[in-house]
């Protein structure tokens, strides 16, 4: 039978290669942004405002992807924007994963009152629209990189804990756990040495997915001007600017949007590919 | 009596969830730095003026007292007064809720129609390139969030081919006076189809942006259930009777495969409603979410509290409704 798994397995290599290459390009762009940027991303030049990208009539080859309404170079802003996007993806994604997976493991394996409290918290969290919750937290915490990361962790830990809890519960009922108990292993030892490795493929897939989500949340916060200081270039901020000048200069919106599309798609494809790679059954 | 007990337990957890949500909203908002009272007063206001206003908004009492007063008022439908507009929060929220509800339900309908027909088509053409194409489209649709779809739709169907409106809820140039806040329903009831078309033209792109990820989820789950059904005996029987493949899928397989999808759609519907916050902002659609972002930017505490609480109420009600529908539809729960 050709099930969903079977189709995923047809070309895991290609997915991993494509998404991995894009993310690698992004990392290089972020790291070397000061060296490869043709212009200062903040430099305004009103005489060069709204220049189209290089293939269009009236373009200036000095500004490859064109300029925004203040005459700032789009390519340079994109390269610098990749820094914030990737930082948020890696740091917020990892922290969310650690907090959520730990709580999920505790709830799913130890059960009892810890499970009761954690599950009730998850229920309460599910009653809030995540975007509104994030915006509210930023308003409370103030703008800045730390606030963005804290907001993402506070909002999204439930994504991990729900899934990990369910997996830990089903793994906890397996025979190998019972035999480890008979062999005299401690509860903590079983949770870390027996349950965790079997839940890991799911956690890894969720982690890369979460990195994509973190990039989106940061873009949304920048879009409503609640991310970091307004003069730092962000993809979300560029999109907000592009949205207002969409009829005069579509390229201001198109380039950061394309970068977001590729990045989020790559993170999710990477997760699918890695999940198969880590899955002991498929391997 | 199993079903009654299940429902009562479910009701109790719903109330606990709502109370927890209220506590969290209250706690988060009371740590907001920056004194909203100071922003309301002109420069040069005396301390006595500040104290009087604080007393007016109850900000001079202890936090616990403030919470009890607030909860008691909320239960009576009194959500306080907006700091920026000086209007009752309840009226503001009720005025905007219909716009968000119309948008959400429209998005849900689009998701069901698109996702459902894609699943049926893929099942009909299973094992061919058509199914492969639908799978790839579904995978991409699922990987990207509503925010990105909204932006892409603005570019393609709003600017490149300007078929639809990309901002607002209705064209002011129509000069149509609405008596209710349910614009679409009112226009339909009053047979003003020019207004209906205009409303739909504004609503279509934001609704589609919200619908795309959900449509992909419906497609995947329904297709999976349908495929499992296609191996059942009653399908083989229908086939030997000579019914067409289309009629077998829609009349025999679909009713048996639909239950898991229905439950999931209910849960996912709350995610969709949550998505309206940023989508309304993106399309300048005058709904609850758009107002919420303004309220946060203006630090309008009573208004934020009211909106977040209404969203929480909406989410928990949808979840409760889904569970009850599931209990009513599932024969194993009904007869237990």
Give the topology:
The complex is a heterodimer of chains A (283) and B (336).
Chain A: H1 4-10, H2 12-31, H3 33-36, H4 74-110, H5 112-125, H6 130-141, H7 145-172, H8 175-182, H9 187-223, H10 235-244, H11 251-278
Chain B: H1 2-30, H2 36-40, H3 47-56, H4 63-75, H5 89-124, H6 129-143, H7 146-160, H8 183-189, H9 193-229, H10 233-240, H11 245-282, H12 288-297, H13 301-329, H14 331-334
Radius of gyration of chain A: 22 Å
* CATH-assigned fold name of chain A: MetI-like fold
- Which percent bin holds the helix content of chain A? over 70%
Give, in order, the helices and strands of chain A: HHHHHHHHHHH
* Uncertain residue ranges of chain B: none
The residue-averaged pLDDT of chain A reads 85
> Which overall shape of chain A is indicated by the principal axes computed on the Cα atoms?
elongated
Distance between the termini of chain A: 19 Å
Q: What is the averaged pLDDT score of chain B?
A: 85
Radius of gyration of chain B: 24 Å
Alpha-beta classification of chain B: mainly alpha
Q: CATH superfamily of chain A, called what?
A: MetI-like
Count of DSSP H/I helices of chain B:
14
What does this structure look like?
The complex is a heterodimer of chains A (283) and B (336). With 283 residues, chain A is mainly α. Chain A is built from 11 helices and no strands. Chain A has helices spanning 4-10, 12-31, 33-36, 74-110, 112-125, 130-141, 145-172, 175-182, 187-223, 235-244, 251-278. The longest helix of chain A has 37 residues, at 74-110. In chain A, 49% of the residues are buried. The model of chain A is unreliable at 1-9 (pLDDT under 50). Chain B has 336 residues and is mostly helical. Chain B has 14 helices and no strands. In chain B, α6 crosses α9 (193-229) and α8 (183-189) crosses α9 (193-229). The longest helix of chain B is centred in the C-terminal third of the chain and has 38 residues, at 245-282. Chains A and B meet through α5, α6, α9 and α11 of A and α1, α6, α7, α11 and α12 of B.
């Amino acid at each position: 039978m050709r099930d969903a798994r079977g189709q995923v397995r047809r070309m895991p290599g290609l997915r991993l290669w494509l998404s991995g290459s894009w993310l690698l390009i992004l990392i290089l762009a972020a790291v070397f942004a000061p060296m490869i940027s043709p212009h200062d991303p903040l430099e305004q030049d009103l005489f060069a405002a709204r220049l189209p990208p290089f293939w269009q009539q009236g373009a200036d080859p000095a500004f490859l992807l064109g300029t925004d309404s203040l005459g700032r170079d789009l390519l340079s802003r994109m390269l610098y924007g990749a820094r914030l996007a990737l930082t948020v993806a890696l740091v917020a994604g990892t922290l969310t994963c650690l907090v959520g997976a730990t709580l999920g493991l505790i709830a799913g394996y130890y059960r009892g009152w810890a499970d009761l409290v954690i599950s009730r918290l998850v229920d309460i969290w599910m009653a809030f629209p995540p975007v509104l919750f994030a915006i509210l937290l930023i308003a409370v915490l103030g703008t800045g990189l730390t606030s963005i990361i804290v907001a993402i962790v506070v909002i999204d830990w439930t994504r991990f804990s729900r899934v990990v809890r369910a997996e830990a519960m089903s793994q906890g009922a397996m025979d190998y756990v019972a035999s480890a108990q008979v062999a005299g292993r401690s509860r903590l030892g079983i949770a870390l040495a027996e349950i965790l490795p079997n839940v890991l493929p799911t956690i890894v897939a969720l982690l890369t997915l979460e990195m994509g989500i973190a990039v989106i949340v940061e873009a949304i916060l920048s879009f409503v001007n609640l991310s970091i200081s307004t003069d730092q270039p962000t993809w979300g901020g560029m999109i907000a600017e592009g949205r207002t000048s969409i009829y005069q200069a579509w390229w201001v919106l198109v380039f950061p949007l394309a970068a977001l599309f590729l990045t989020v798609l790559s993170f999710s494809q990477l997760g699918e590919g890695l999940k198969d790679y880590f899955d002991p059954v498929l391997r | 009596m199993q079903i009654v007990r299940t429902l009562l337990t479910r009701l109790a957890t719903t109330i606990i969830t709502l109370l927890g949500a209220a506590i969290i909203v209250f706690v988060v908002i009371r740590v907001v730095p920056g004194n909203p009272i100071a922003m309301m007063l002109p420069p040069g206001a005396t301390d006595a003026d500040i104290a009087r206003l604080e007393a007016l908004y109850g900000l001079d009492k202890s936090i616990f007292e403030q919470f009890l007063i607030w909860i008691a008022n909320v239960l009576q439908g009194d959500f306080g007064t907006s700091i920026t507009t000086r209007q009752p929060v309840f009226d503001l929220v009720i005025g905007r809720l219909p716009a968000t509800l119309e948008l959400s339900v429209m998005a849900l309908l689009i998701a069901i129609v698109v996702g459902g027909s894609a699943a049926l088509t893929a099942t009909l053409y299973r094992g061919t390139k058509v199914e492969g194409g639908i799978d790839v489209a579904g995978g991409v649709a699922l990987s990207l969030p509503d925010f990105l779809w909204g932006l892409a739709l603005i570019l393609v169907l709003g600017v490149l081919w300007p078929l639809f409106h990309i901002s607002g809820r209705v064209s002011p140039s129509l000069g149509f006076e609405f008596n209710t806040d349910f614009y679409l329903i009112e226009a339909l009831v009053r047979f003003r189809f020019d207004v209906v078309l205009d409303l739909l033209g504004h609503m279509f792109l934001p609704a589609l942006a919200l619908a795309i990820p959900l449509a992909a989820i419906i497609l995947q789950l329904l297709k999976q259930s349908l495929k499992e059904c296609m191996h059942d005996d009653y399908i083989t029987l229908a086939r030997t009777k000579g019914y067409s493949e289309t009629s077998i899928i829609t009349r025999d397989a679909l009713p048996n495969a639909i239950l898991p999808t229905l439950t999931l759609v209910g849960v996912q519907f709350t995610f969709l409603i949550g998505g309206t916050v940023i989508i309304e902002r993106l399309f300048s659609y005058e709904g609850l979410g758009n107002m919420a972002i303004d309220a946060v930017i203006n630090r309008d505490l009573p208004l934020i509290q009211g909106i977040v609480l209404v969203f929480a109420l909406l989410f928990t009600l949808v979840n409760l409704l889904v569970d009850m529908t599931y209990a009513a539809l599932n024969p194993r729960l009904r007869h237990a």
